[in-house]
Please model this.
Amino acid sequence: MSDAALIEIKAEARRAAFARRKAAHAAAAPGAAGRLSEVLAGYRGVPLAGYMPIRTEIDPLPAMAEAAAHGPVGVPVIVTEGAPLVFSRWEPECEMVEGPFGASVPAKGELFEPEILIVPLVGFDRQGGRLGYGGGFYDRTLEKLRAKRPTLAIGFAYGAQEAARLPLEVTDQPLDMLVTEAEVISFG
Model:
């Protein structure tokens, strides 16, 4: 398959996944992060990073706030296009400022390296595949972190974001686990 064909197939998969996510977000009931909190309870104190939800992303903030009572929690910061993400310490109610791509980042930039990443996504499949926004930020970041030590990648999504099979490239980093509002799926 040519690069151009794969790019178009991924673009179509993204369009379909965005539509499913938008519908799931509109219909979501409160408490969607409950399963994520249950999973993170098994990793109390392990440095982790979540994300500040944008647009129709499922909201991990309640689970992140609970985890912050037991250990360091951070959020991603985009340094520059084409580079891995860095992570700034976050706490509930900390002062936030607008960062690149519309995601908020802590005003006080205390950087650290997480061992667990709660990863936002557009689509996922039952083989551990993740379809992101197309910038490769999480793929580069996971590759860098995993080269240093085991790093757990937990995708967090609405169940409706599932696809039968995603078009993936060799640079796409797999998820270790996927958590939805209704279930926990472990891979490998």
Summary: The longest strand covers residues 73-77. The mean pLDDT is 94. The radius of gyration is 16 Å.
